[in-house]
Specification:
The structure holds 2 protein chains of 2 kinds. By secondary structure, chain A is mainly alpha-helical. Chain A has 23 helices and 7 strands. Chain A has a 3-stranded antiparallel beta sheet, with helices on one face. A two-stranded antiparallel sheet of chain A has the order 2-3. In chain A, strand 2 and strand 3 form a beta hairpin. In chain A, helix 13 packs across helix 22. Helix content of chain B is 74%, strand content 1%. Chain B contains 20 helices and 2 strands. The two termini of chain B are 26 Å apart. Classes of the chains: A mainly alpha, B mainly alpha. Chains A and B meet through strand 2, helix 6, helix 7 and helix 8 of A and helix 17, helix 18 and helix 20 of B.
């Protein structure tokens, strides 16, 4: 109970789930009250998240913090272990920040069953935050799955015409990957037990265990499949355009803004550090798929005539960049990748919001229905241009910093000669400019061809309020990136050190558990000797 | 066993739950005969009897054997007995309104129901094949009668006849198997059979055949492929609240006997490729059950096939037999009891006409008409699909962990892929409930307090035990440790 009421991660994670309970008793006619309640709850969650981080803020590096560890299923060494560090902190903030914006954006777009919608959103938030913060593999898996059902509901109930197809495809794709990941989790938990005699699923313990090369490959494959589907990496991306196009605006924003990040986060946190030898062997494959994703996503986006599909495919391209950065195993590239995760959440989130606002007015997302909108909707045009330029990677906006760091870091990567992938991915930057500017020119500029468009209302204050924070952040990250990069640097550095140290080792013949993880991952130490009942805070 | 054995007080205390159930059955029948007005409270009386039996099982029955080792009582048998009683209780909660609505409120239903619960409890605790057989007959004969209880519905007669004919065959197989084992080993006690086989007595062929017949008989009761054909037709025609019981309790009791027999087989080193056979049964059940469930349009039939698949998952835990098989089976069956009995209890309330098929397409859009029932059904189905944080996930966790630990990686992968198929059709129900426009109005039934209680109880326990599984797992771990 202390865990839930104190200033803890637990409170942050479970507040949305608890906030659902009163919603069960809201009559379905009280739509307005439901919306206001959901908005209030989301602001409380936002405040909880920001206060938690602000109290522990250190501009030189965000500390590694664990909630008191509790035994969850003690017979199997399964622990309730939530922790935050510089890697998860920005993603957690992104999650809590998008929630109120999503509710504001859905104010009129969602017309029925508002309490169901609010419940789904809040439960989804609990799942996402839990997955970002779980440091026990079993716990992580539980949160990972908890996200699925609410998202299925959001797409399936409030989505477009082909919503059922999209929702089921989303669910089955994700589930297929994660079920095999579950088997892999069980396997390593059992291997740990067979080697040491005690059960554990804790990430810290797993990082101390060196596995034979053959086992690593299979286990990495299972984890990587689950995460690659979520990212999504080419050729597992086919669920994404369907899900995005059919999902309501709010669903798309959450999907693109946060859910996809769980895939890249999973690679960074789990798949790469736990199976270093397999990861090293997989670098060429990851690079190839990442670059193909960048180019293929860009080319397909170019061909789209539907704004939402274009933005969806641009996600495939952008996340290809992130994967490229991760596969470089270089600090600068990793920093860029983490920043790019944040950037993509902001700029793509904003783009989906804008497409949604247009759709609310005209009930279409086809380019050919628009043209010359800048004349009738100047504010809309301003925000669209701003977000698009951020997404393209215009210097002084956030996208530039991320992409530049990824490419620069990968170029000097020590794991191999990455010049060709970098060169190819750079072409992707140009392509991004081509397709995104094509979207701008076809919708905003030129003559007004359709009479319906002459009377379109410009953005109202609620919509401006939704977009403004995102644009401020995009600009802020663009002009002062160091403020956003520095807090994550030590955590990334530590993870990278562990990964590279473990990669350099020759894998043993049989599983071996070391006293401490190679490369001294500070987070690991904290888990290795859990002292239940007290919260440890360490800052460097 | 000498005829001069006198039944002592300890023996009677040991079977107190069964005595309670049997007496309650007789009482409810006689009361109905002499004071017909009492049938109105027969369901509540029976529910109280089931709760009483559960209380007796939990607190009164001492650990150890009784009736000269014919019945045993361990924490594990208590666990399995409670699974049986939980399904009985959930079933009874949904029964009252159903019997009134269908105008078949007679106390015979309750009497038969309580007696077959007693049979299932005996079966769980029997350590000797003839007692198992007697318990199975007590259970089965009541089940046959109950399956056809709704006389005016044609499918009910079909259900009962099919179940009865198949069941009669199976009983004779079982008897033949027992006879062969007795002939070759000179005993019907599980432990004595194991010793005799281990000592190399008897013909290996006849012993293998005897085991095969016994296992096949319980495979039939478990409805694993290829002994599954009766299940869909019987489930479809039998009274829906009764299916909540039929789909769980006989399977739980049979799973225990199945495990006991398998334990004899493996511990005695009886001839035969048992591991391969069980693997094959498990794989076939998971695949056939899930793929056939995929094409069902009738909810009850769909759940029948899903039940076949679930017994396949259960068998995955039996492939290599050790103590963890017992804990895996107990967790799985507890989850199965709550989610399957819960789902049938809810379906009872959603469909108001037993004579009509329970079509999936009929419930389209009812998620907003019957919010509570629909939400609880969703929880039960997600648990059946093995999605965390539900108890169904924990059941699958135990089973697949067991398979991995004993090197059956292929079977585990097959299992999770089969469960992916399962998730597809469970989700389809959710999709009909919430995402399809309504095609047919739900009958405006009055508020069924007890039925709703069953739904909330099942769904709530699934969620609660899924989120806080610690006490349950600890209890089972201790129960296993006490086995010695």
């Amino acid at each position: 109970m202390d865990l839930l009421l104190g200033d803890t991660l637990t409170r942050l994670v479970f507040f949305p789930a608890l906030a659902c309970l009163p919603l069960l008793f809201f009559p379905s006619r009280a739509q307005r009250e439901t919306k206001i309640y959901a908005l209030a709850a989301s602001f409380v969650e936002l405040a909880l998240g920001f206060l938690y981080v602000a109290r522990r803020w250190n501009p030189a590096g965000f500390p590694d913090l664990h909630d008191p560890v509790h035994e969850w299923i003690s017979g199997f060494g399964i622990r309730y272990d939530l922790a935050i560090d510089g890697i998860s902190m920005p993603l957690v903030l992104l999650t809590v920040a998008l929630l109120p914006l999503v509710i504001l954006a859905s104010w009129h777009g969602i017309e029925k069953h508002w309490n169901g919608f609010a419940i789904s959103l809040l439960l989804l938030t609990t799942g996402m935050l839990g997955a970002f913060l779980a440091f026990d593999l079993f716990l992580f898996y539980v949160f990972w799955e908890v996200m699925l059902v609410p998202m299925y509901m959001i797409i399936g109930i409030w989505g477009g015409h082909r919503r059922i197809y999209a929702a089921v495809k989303f669910f089955l794709f994700t589930m297929a990957g994660s079920l095999l990941m579950l088997l892999a989790i069980l396997w390593i938990g059992w291997t740990y037990q067979a080697t040491t005699g005690t059960w554990s699923f804790s990430l810290g313990d797993m990082l101390r265990m060196d596995l034979p090369a053959r086992q690593q490959i299979w286990l990495f494959a299972a984890f990587a499949l689950a995460f690659a589907i979520k990212v999504p990496m080419f050729p597992l991306h086919t669920w994404l355009p369907d899900a995005h196009v059919e999902a309501p605006t709010g669903g798309s924003v959450i999907l693109a803004g946060v859910l996809l990040k769980l895939g890249t986060y999973g690679f960074l946190r789990f798949a790469l550090p736990m199976f270093p030898d397999a990861a090293r062997r997989a670098i060429p494959l990851i690079l190839a798929l990442a670059v193909v994703g960048v180019l293929y996503g860009a080319l397909v986006a170019w061909m789209q005539t539907d704004m939402k599909k274009l933005v969806a495919y641009s996600s495939v391209a952008h996340l290809g960049f992130v994967m490229l950065g991760l596969a470089a195993f270089d600090l600068v590239a990793w920093q860029g990748a983490l920043l790019q995760m944040l950037n993509h959440g902001l700029s793509t989130g904003a783009l989906f919001l804008l497409v949604g606002m247009l759709y609310d007015r005209r009930h279409t997302k086809e380019f050919k229905e628009f043209g010359g909108l800048a004349k009738v909707m100047p504010w809309f045009a301003f925000f669209l241009v701003f977000s698009t330029l951020a997404s393209v990677g215009l210097p002084a906006l956030n996208g530039f910093v991320g992409e530049f760091m990824i490419l620069a870091g990968a170029y000097k990567s020590t794991v191999g000669d990455l010049r060709l992938p970098v060169a190819l991915a750079s072409v992707g930057v140009i392509l991004a400019a081509v397709y995104l500017l094509k979207m701008l020119s076809q919708t905003l500029w030129g003559p007004i061809t359709k009479d319906e468009n002459r009377v379109l209302r410009d953005l109202g204050w609620r919509e401006k309020l939704t977009l403004a924070p995102l644009c401020v952040l995009m600009l802020w990250i663009g002009v002062e990136p160091q403020r956003f990069l520095a807090p994550s640097k030590p955590a990334l550095e530590a993870t990278l050190r562990t990964v590279t140290a473990r990669m350099a080792e020759v894998p043993p013949e049989a599983p071996v558990v070391r006293a401490a993880a190679l490369g001294q991952l500070p987070v690991t130490e904290a888990i290795a000797a859990p002292q239940a009942g007290e919260s440890r805070e360490r800052s460097r | 066993m000498s005829p001069s054995y006198a039944v002592g007080q300890a023996d009677l205390v040991a079977i107190l739950p069964e005595i309670l159930l049997s007496l309650a059955g007789i009482a409810v029948l006689l009361l109905d005969a002499f004071f017909p007005v009492t049938r109105k409270i027969a369901t509540f009386f029976s529910g109280a009897a089931v709760l009483g039996a559960a209380w007796a099982m939990w607190t009164q029955v001492p650990e150890g054997t009784s009736f000269r080792g014919v019945l045993e009582s361990t924490p594990l048998t208590t666990g399995f007995s409670l699974v049986v009683l939980i399904s009985a209780f959930l079933s009874l909660l949904a029964t009252d309104r159903y019997l009134r609505r269908e105008r078949i409120l007679n106390a015979e239903y309750h009497a038969l129901f309580l007696w077959c619960a007693a049979g299932a409890l005996f079966m769980v605790r029997a350590t000797e094949l003839l007692t198992v057989f007697l318990a199975l007959e007590l259970l089965s004969i009541c089940l046959y009668a109950l399956a056809g209880f709704h006389r005016r519905v044609q499918e009910a007669s079909e259900a009962a006849i099919k179940y009865f004919l198949m069941g009669a065959f199976v009983s004779s197989f079982l008897l033949l198997g027992i006879a062969l084992l007795y002939g070759e080993t000179g005993s019907t006690q599980f432990s004595a059979i194991a010793d005799a086989v281990a000592a190399g007595r008897g013909s290996t062929l006849l012993i293998a055949l005897g085991f095969l017949l016994v296992l096949a008989a319980f495979g039939f009761k478990l409805s694993v492929v290829p002994f599954h054909a009766w299940a869909p037709d019987t489930y479809q025609g039998a009274p829906t609240p009764f299916v909540a019981y039929l789909s769980v309790a006989p399977k739980a009791a049979s799973a225990v006997v199945f495990l006991r027999v398998l334990q004899v087989v493996t511990s005695s080193g009886a001839p035969g490729k048992w591991v391969q056979w069980i693997t094959l049964l498990a794989a076939a059940s998971m695949l056939v059950g899930n793929f056939l469930a995929l094409v069902q349009r009738d909810l009850k039939r769909m759940l029948a096939y899903s039940g076949i698949a679930h017994m396949g998952y259960l068998l995955v835990g039996f492939v290599t037999l050790d103590r963890e098989s017992w804990s895996a089976a107990l967790v799985y069956l507890l989850a199965y009891a709550l989610m399957n009995a819960g789902a049938f209890a809810i379906i009872t309330q959603l469909f108001e006409r037993e004579g009509e098929p329970h079509l999936l397409s009929d419930i389209a859009g009812w998620g907003y008409r019957r919010p509570l029932l629909a939400a609880c059904l969703t929880a039960c189905l997600l648990s059946l699909g093995g999605i965390p944080p539900t108890l169904g996930f924990l059941g699958k966790y135990f089973v697949f962990l067991h398979a991995l630990r004993h090197g059956h990686v292929g079977l585990a992968i097959l299992g999770v892929l089969a469960s992916l198929v399962g998730i597809f059709y469970y989700l389809r129900v959710v999709y009909f409930l919430y995402m399809k426009p309504e095609v047919r109005e739900p009958v405006a039934g009055t508020f069924d307090l007890w039925g709703n209680a069953a739904a909330v109880l099942a769904a709530g326990s699934l969620m609660l035990l899924g989120v806080f599984p610690g006490p349950l797992v600890d209890w089972i771990t201790q129960a296993i440790a006490r086995l010695g």
